[in-house]
Protein backbone atom coordinates (compact mmCIF):
# COMPACT_ATOMS: atom_id res chain seq x y z
CA UNK A 1 0.00 0.00 0.00
CA UNK A 2 1.33 3.43 -0.96
CA UNK A 3 0.97 6.54 1.11
CA UNK A 4 0.02 9.95 -0.31
CA UNK A 5 0.11 11.85 3.01
CA UNK A 6 1.06 10.93 6.57
CA UNK A 7 -0.72 12.38 9.61
CA UNK A 8 2.25 11.98 11.94
CA UNK A 9 0.47 13.01 15.12
CA UNK A 10 -3.10 11.95 15.76
CA UNK A 11 -5.11 10.22 18.50
CA UNK A 12 -7.78 8.00 16.93
CA UNK A 13 -7.42 5.66 19.93
CA UNK A 14 -8.96 8.40 22.16
CA UNK A 15 -12.51 8.05 23.42
CA UNK A 16 -13.66 10.86 21.07
CA UNK A 17 -13.63 8.13 18.37
CA UNK A 18 -15.33 5.45 20.46
CA UNK A 19 -18.41 5.24 18.25
CA UNK A 20 -16.92 5.35 14.75
CA UNK A 21 -13.19 4.67 15.09
CA UNK A 22 -12.97 2.10 12.31
CA UNK A 23 -14.89 4.28 9.85
CA UNK A 24 -12.63 7.27 10.62
CA UNK A 25 -9.47 5.23 10.08
CA UNK A 26 -10.82 3.61 6.92
CA UNK A 27 -11.79 6.94 5.30
CA UNK A 28 -8.23 8.17 5.80
CA UNK A 29 -6.58 4.97 4.54
CA UNK A 30 -8.85 4.89 1.48
CA UNK A 31 -7.69 8.42 0.65
CA UNK A 32 -4.05 7.24 0.90
CA UNK A 33 -3.45 8.82 4.32
CA UNK A 34 -1.30 6.92 6.79
CA UNK A 35 -1.32 7.86 10.46
CA UNK A 36 0.66 7.62 13.68
CA UNK A 37 -1.51 7.39 16.81
CA UNK A 38 0.26 9.07 19.68
CA UNK A 39 0.20 7.66 23.20
CA UNK A 40 -0.16 10.11 26.10
CA UNK A 41 -0.21 7.84 29.16
CA UNK A 42 -0.40 4.10 29.95
CA UNK A 43 -3.80 3.29 28.47
CA UNK A 44 -3.63 5.46 25.35
CA UNK A 45 -0.14 4.06 24.63
CA UNK A 46 -1.28 0.43 24.91
CA UNK A 47 -4.38 1.21 22.84
CA UNK A 48 -2.35 2.87 20.09
CA UNK A 49 -0.25 -0.32 19.75
CA UNK A 50 -3.32 -2.50 19.59
CA UNK A 51 -4.93 -0.31 16.93
CA UNK A 52 -1.77 -0.24 14.80
CA UNK A 53 -1.86 -4.02 14.49
CA UNK A 54 -5.37 -3.91 13.05
CA UNK A 55 -4.50 -1.80 9.99
CA UNK A 56 -1.71 -1.49 7.46
CA UNK A 57 -0.63 2.17 7.31
CA UNK A 58 -1.44 2.81 10.99
CA UNK A 59 1.47 3.16 13.43
CA UNK A 60 1.89 3.90 17.15
CA UNK A 61 3.99 5.79 19.66
CA UNK A 62 4.19 5.15 23.41
CA UNK A 63 4.94 7.69 26.11
CA UNK A 64 3.81 9.92 28.95
CA UNK A 65 2.61 13.44 28.10
CA UNK A 66 3.90 16.15 30.50
CA UNK A 67 0.37 17.09 31.59
CA UNK A 68 -0.23 13.53 32.79
CA UNK A 69 2.70 13.66 35.21
CA UNK A 70 0.48 15.58 37.65
CA UNK A 71 -2.96 15.16 39.13
CA UNK A 72 -4.47 18.18 37.50
CA UNK A 73 -6.06 17.77 34.15
CA UNK A 74 -8.55 15.51 32.49
CA UNK A 75 -9.98 15.69 29.02
CA UNK A 76 -13.08 13.65 28.36
CA UNK A 77 -12.26 13.41 24.63
CA UNK A 78 -9.05 11.61 25.59
CA UNK A 79 -9.90 9.12 28.30
CA UNK A 80 -13.71 9.08 28.32
CA UNK A 81 -16.35 9.87 30.90
CA UNK A 82 -16.05 6.56 32.71
CA UNK A 83 -12.41 7.38 33.47
CA UNK A 84 -13.43 10.82 34.76
CA UNK A 85 -16.05 9.24 37.00
CA UNK A 86 -13.61 6.60 38.29
CA UNK A 87 -10.94 9.17 39.12
CA UNK A 88 -13.53 11.35 40.89
CA UNK A 89 -14.57 8.39 43.00
CA UNK A 90 -10.95 7.96 44.02
CA UNK A 91 -10.77 11.40 45.59
CA UNK A 92 -11.78 14.08 43.17
CA UNK A 93 -8.73 14.34 40.96
CA UNK A 94 -9.31 14.63 37.24
CA UNK A 95 -6.02 13.12 36.06
CA UNK A 96 -4.25 10.30 37.78
CA UNK A 97 -0.78 11.91 37.92
CA UNK A 98 1.12 9.00 36.51
CA UNK A 99 4.64 8.08 37.59
CA UNK A 100 6.73 7.05 34.61
CA UNK A 101 7.21 3.30 34.74
CA UNK A 102 10.26 2.72 32.54
CA UNK A 103 9.78 -1.03 32.25
CA UNK A 104 6.13 -0.74 31.26
CA UNK A 105 6.92 1.64 28.41
CA UNK A 106 10.06 -0.28 27.43
CA UNK A 107 8.01 -3.38 26.86
CA UNK A 108 5.53 -1.49 24.68
CA UNK A 109 8.37 0.27 22.83
CA UNK A 110 9.68 -3.05 21.53
CA UNK A 111 6.51 -3.52 19.46
CA UNK A 112 7.39 -3.49 15.74
CA UNK A 113 4.62 -0.97 15.00
CA UNK A 114 5.89 1.53 17.58
CA UNK A 115 7.78 4.18 15.60
CA UNK A 116 8.65 6.76 18.30
CA UNK A 117 8.69 7.53 22.03
CA UNK A 118 6.25 10.19 23.24
CA UNK A 119 4.48 12.38 23.27
CA UNK A 120 6.86 13.60 25.90
CA UNK A 121 8.37 16.97 26.73
CA UNK A 122 7.45 20.06 28.72
CA UNK A 123 4.18 21.97 29.14
CA UNK A 124 4.32 25.11 31.26
CA UNK A 125 0.80 26.24 30.42
CA UNK A 126 -0.46 25.15 33.84
CA UNK A 127 2.49 25.70 36.06
CA UNK A 128 3.86 25.17 39.54
CA UNK A 129 7.56 24.81 40.48
CA UNK A 130 7.01 21.13 41.28
CA UNK A 131 5.51 20.65 37.83
CA UNK A 132 8.70 21.83 36.13
CA UNK A 133 10.93 19.49 38.09
CA UNK A 134 8.72 16.46 37.61
CA UNK A 135 8.23 17.13 33.90
CA UNK A 136 11.98 17.42 33.35
CA UNK A 137 12.66 14.12 35.15
CA UNK A 138 9.99 12.25 33.21
CA UNK A 139 11.16 13.77 29.92
CA UNK A 140 14.79 12.71 30.50
CA UNK A 141 13.69 9.14 31.27
CA UNK A 142 11.91 9.07 27.91
CA UNK A 143 15.02 10.41 26.13
CA UNK A 144 16.84 7.44 27.70
CA UNK A 145 14.11 5.05 26.59
CA UNK A 146 14.24 6.39 23.00
CA UNK A 147 17.98 5.74 23.04
CA UNK A 148 17.56 2.21 24.34
CA UNK A 149 14.72 1.41 21.91
CA UNK A 150 16.58 3.03 18.99
CA UNK A 151 13.49 5.06 18.09
CA UNK A 152 13.06 8.84 17.66
CA UNK A 153 11.26 11.21 20.05
CA UNK A 154 7.81 12.71 19.53
CA UNK A 155 8.10 15.92 21.53
CA UNK A 156 5.34 18.14 22.92
CA UNK A 157 6.45 21.60 24.08
CA UNK A 158 4.27 24.46 25.21
CA UNK A 159 5.69 27.71 26.57
CA UNK A 160 8.91 25.94 27.61
CA UNK A 161 11.33 26.12 24.67
CA UNK A 162 14.30 27.53 26.63
CA UNK A 163 14.21 24.65 29.12
CA UNK A 164 13.45 22.10 26.39
CA UNK A 165 16.50 23.10 24.34
CA UNK A 166 18.66 23.11 27.47
CA UNK A 167 17.56 19.55 28.39
CA UNK A 168 18.08 18.29 24.83
CA UNK A 169 21.51 19.91 24.62
CA UNK A 170 22.72 18.45 27.87
CA UNK A 171 21.49 15.00 26.80
CA UNK A 172 22.59 15.25 23.17
CA UNK A 173 24.84 12.19 23.46
CA UNK A 174 21.64 10.15 23.99
CA UNK A 175 19.74 11.41 20.93
CA UNK A 176 19.13 8.99 18.07
CA UNK A 177 19.81 9.90 14.47
CA UNK A 178 17.49 11.44 13.39
CA UNK A 179 16.41 12.47 16.93
CA UNK A 180 12.72 13.11 16.15
CA UNK A 181 9.98 15.70 15.85
CA UNK A 182 8.75 18.72 17.73
CA UNK A 183 5.02 18.41 17.14
CA UNK A 184 2.65 21.40 16.77
CA UNK A 185 5.74 23.59 16.79
CA UNK A 186 5.04 27.00 18.32
CA UNK A 187 8.53 28.31 19.07
CA UNK A 188 10.43 31.14 17.40
CA UNK A 189 12.74 30.93 14.38
CA UNK A 190 15.66 31.09 16.86
CA UNK A 191 14.26 28.07 18.72
CA UNK A 192 13.81 26.28 15.39
CA UNK A 193 17.43 27.02 14.46
CA UNK A 194 18.74 25.55 17.72
CA UNK A 195 16.53 22.46 17.41
CA UNK A 196 17.61 21.94 13.79
CA UNK A 197 21.23 22.06 14.91
CA UNK A 198 20.36 19.05 17.11
CA UNK A 199 18.77 17.32 14.09
CA UNK A 200 15.07 17.82 14.88
CA UNK A 201 12.21 18.29 12.41
CA UNK A 202 8.81 19.92 12.98
CA UNK A 203 5.16 19.11 12.39
CA UNK A 204 2.33 21.55 11.79
CA UNK A 205 -1.42 21.02 12.03
CA UNK A 206 -4.81 22.68 11.61
CA UNK A 207 -3.80 25.90 13.31
CA UNK A 208 -1.82 26.97 10.21
CA UNK A 209 -5.10 27.21 8.28
CA UNK A 210 -6.43 30.01 10.50
CA UNK A 211 -3.49 31.62 12.34
CA UNK A 212 -1.17 33.73 10.21
CA UNK A 213 1.74 33.81 12.66
CA UNK A 214 2.96 30.41 11.45
CA UNK A 215 3.72 31.56 7.90
CA UNK A 216 7.12 33.03 8.75
CA UNK A 217 8.18 29.83 10.52
CA UNK A 218 7.02 27.56 7.69
CA UNK A 219 8.99 29.61 5.17
CA UNK A 220 12.03 29.61 7.46
CA UNK A 221 12.23 25.83 8.07
CA UNK A 222 13.65 23.82 5.13
CA UNK A 223 10.99 21.60 3.43
CA UNK A 224 12.87 18.40 4.31
CA UNK A 225 12.25 19.25 8.01
CA UNK A 226 8.48 19.81 7.75
CA UNK A 227 5.84 17.16 8.47
CA UNK A 228 2.05 17.23 8.69
CA UNK A 229 -0.29 16.37 11.53
CA UNK A 230 -3.87 16.80 12.69
CA UNK A 231 -3.60 16.26 16.48
CA UNK A 232 -7.15 14.89 16.08
CA UNK A 233 -9.61 15.08 17.81
CA UNK A 234 -8.32 18.61 18.56
CA UNK A 235 -7.81 21.80 16.49
CA UNK A 236 -9.59 20.96 13.23
CA UNK A 237 -8.39 22.94 10.18
CA UNK A 238 -10.59 25.23 8.13
CA UNK A 239 -13.24 24.54 6.82
CA UNK A 240 -13.94 22.11 9.69
CA UNK A 241 -12.91 24.45 12.51
CA UNK A 242 -14.83 23.80 15.74
CA UNK A 243 -15.73 20.24 14.72
CA UNK A 244 -14.05 17.04 15.80
CA UNK A 245 -10.81 16.71 13.84
CA UNK A 246 -9.76 13.48 12.06
CA UNK A 247 -6.78 12.22 10.01
CA UNK A 248 -8.52 12.77 6.64
CA UNK A 249 -8.36 16.54 7.27
CA UNK A 250 -4.57 16.50 7.07
CA UNK A 251 -5.21 17.26 3.37
CA UNK A 252 -6.31 20.77 4.38
CA UNK A 253 -3.04 21.29 6.26
CA UNK A 254 -1.06 20.17 3.18
CA UNK A 255 -3.06 22.54 0.96
CA UNK A 256 -2.37 25.48 3.24
CA UNK A 257 1.35 24.74 3.52
CA UNK A 258 1.53 24.46 -0.28
CA UNK A 259 -0.10 27.89 -0.50
CA UNK A 260 2.30 29.44 2.02
CA UNK A 261 5.32 27.98 0.21
CA UNK A 262 3.90 28.74 -3.24
CA UNK A 263 4.25 25.08 -4.27
CA UNK A 264 1.98 22.41 -5.74
CA UNK A 265 -0.04 20.27 -3.35
CA UNK A 266 1.62 17.19 -4.91
CA UNK A 267 5.09 18.45 -4.14
CA UNK A 268 4.24 19.19 -0.49
CA UNK A 269 2.52 15.80 -0.19
CA UNK A 270 5.54 14.01 -1.65
CA UNK A 271 8.17 15.81 0.44
CA UNK A 272 6.33 15.58 3.76
CA UNK A 273 5.52 11.89 3.15
CA UNK A 274 9.16 11.11 2.36
CA UNK A 275 10.18 12.95 5.53
CA UNK A 276 7.75 10.90 7.63
CA UNK A 277 8.82 7.58 6.09
CA UNK A 278 12.50 8.40 6.60
CA UNK A 279 12.30 9.75 10.17
CA UNK A 280 9.92 7.12 11.54
CA UNK A 281 11.12 4.27 9.32
CA UNK A 282 7.53 3.52 8.28
CA UNK A 283 6.92 0.22 6.51
ZN1 LIG B 1 -1.14 15.19 20.70
UniProtKB/TrEMBL annotation:
Q: Which PROSITE patterns match?
A: TATD_3
Under SUPFAM superfamilies, the record lists: Metallo-dependent hydrolases (SSF51556)
Q: Which domain of life is it from?
A: Bacteria
The GO terms this record gives for MF are: hydrolase activity, acting on ester bonds; metal ion binding
Q: Which residues bind a divalent metal cation 2?
A: 156, 183
The record's section on CDD domains has: TatD_DNAse (cd01310)
Q: What UniProt keywords are attached to this protein's entry?
A: Hydrolase, Metal-binding
Sites binding a divalent metal cation 1 sit at 9, 11, 119, 231
Q: What InterPro entries has UniProt attached to this entry?
A: DNase_TatD-rel_CS (IPR018228), Metal_Hydrolase (IPR032466), TatD-like (IPR001130)
Give the residue spans that cross the bilayer.
none
Return the protein name. Answer: Hydrolase TatD
What organism does the UniProt record list as the source?
Candidatus Giovannonibacteria bacterium RIFCSPHIGHO2_02_FULL_45_40
